[in-house]
């Protein structure tokens, strides 16, 4: 697998504040990555550094295994950072022509990409007349002009209305389905969950986790149980080696699994013990719950 | 190189304000020719500028480059805003992300400034040549070609001044403030520094010192030509005074301006490199 971007021990200090701390990760071809973290966790700073607009205080990064210098590599990258930045007095076409000139690619993809993001009818309108959603879509079109090896998006749905958010996500999915590597920074968990296969989680500039989304916590999920014989059930769960914490909330018993077990097996066990369930659900934590667990754990340790 | 120029051209030419200012600037340069049309014809007093010998070669090179030099202030607006706008639109960030290196970014601005200086010089050359051929008393090739060093000086004067404007644009990041800073700097050079050195080391040291300051060294490249004008000189001579002013362009003066140009471009690059966007 070819590494598109390798980040090694990256550090960025703004005065006393350490925005990124000793961060290392690798982006491989063909995956959709998410950088997840609350506001101010260093996502944009990290992207700024690898995109050559922020100077790192320490550490290294290399594009395409160091085969290309950063500014040559950036011509093979499509990136949008925070807000779409274009020349307000120029039309969509004029702005995109300029980007083609900078990226040293021919102009013939402009119409195709405008079509992809649904801006073809407005191609001759000035950028300043666009709505935020349209600006963001133009930015995506511009990032795609060179058919990039990797598309970097920094909070692409920030500040958009639900319809705009939906449009952007559809576009991202379409691009991902064509096999383009994507790196998506977001503080919205469900966004990352919906789109990404891999995730890097940051908090206060430090990496908490990086890897596949489903391996994020060695999690076997949990059961939600309900029974008339509550006492007997609790007793059974607490003595069984497969179960971790047991919580009794609003009449529902929530028990976290320490090893793999399916609902059928549990039901059978309980039935043999003479405990009859009125409610049995096996669930996996959502990314949000996992994320909160992860950030809480580290907070306690610190 | 051509690519960098094209990039800058797209940015400038699609901006209506810049386009109007650029066109007006070159129109104004052309309008220098209208000086020739100045005619007073009030009864007994007949005055026609063209008849006063101001368009004689090689004097015309000096006069026209000096007048055209004044117009550079007008063009400073275009130069400063073409740099500062990149900051206010945040397009500089996008340019770099799209794969323009910081060196290329500065190079594209400098090449543009270089091109404008070259075109301006060419304009002044052509306008003066035509005016001279029409009105000059001497049109021998050797005389026409003498005094062309004023055009060289004019070119470096523009290049130095525009590089200063670029630097201010990148330093201050806002066009209006950068232009304000330009005026403040002019005051610092001409008031604060001039009199400080005067006070510390006397008038002669002050005059020498001034020659090394950026704006002063640029304006010093082409000295005022009015007192060289023969009508003025004859008046002065009648009053029993004598002029011994050196009007020539000196190589070391061009060198000083060239040094400032290099310093400003380098500082712009260093600033861009160091700054987080």
Q: Number of helical segments of chain A?
A: 10
Most extensive interface, chain pair and sizes: A-B, 29 and 26 residues
- The H-level CATH homologous superfamily of the largest domain in chain A, spelled out, is P-loop containing nucleotide triphosphate hydrolases
Percentage of β-strand residues of chain B: under 5%
Q: Give the % helix of chain A.
A: 25-40%
Description:
The complex is a heterodimer of chains A (302) and B (277). With 302 residues, chain A is an alpha/beta fold. Chain A has two domains: 3-212, Rossmann fold (3-Layer(aba) Sandwich), CATH 3.40.50.300; 222-283, Alpha-Beta Plaits, CATH 3.30.70. Helix content of chain A is 34%, strand content 29%. Chain A contains ten helices and 13 strands. Chain A has helices at residues 43-50, 70-73, 92-103, 110-116, 132-144, 162-177, 189-195, 230-239, 263-272, 287-301, and strands spanning 3-14, 17-28, 32-36, 58-63, 77-80, 150-154, 181-186, 198-203, 206-212, 222-227, 243-249, 252-257, 277-283. In chain A, the strands form three sheets. In chain A, strands 5-6-7-3-8-9 form a six-stranded mixed beta sheet, with helices on both faces. In chain A, strands 11-12-10-13 form a four-stranded antiparallel beta sheet, covered by helices on one side. In chain A, α4 crosses α5. Chain A is elongated, with a radius of gyration of 24 Å. In chain B, a hairpin with a 2-residue loop joins β1 and β2. The longest helix of chain B has 34 residues, at 102-135. Chain B starts with a helix and ends with a helix. Chain B has a domain at 2-37 and 48-177 and 258-274. By secondary structure, chain B is mainly α. In chain B, 73% of the residues lie in helices and 3% in strands. Chain B contains 13 helices and two strands; from the N terminus they run ααββααααααααααα.
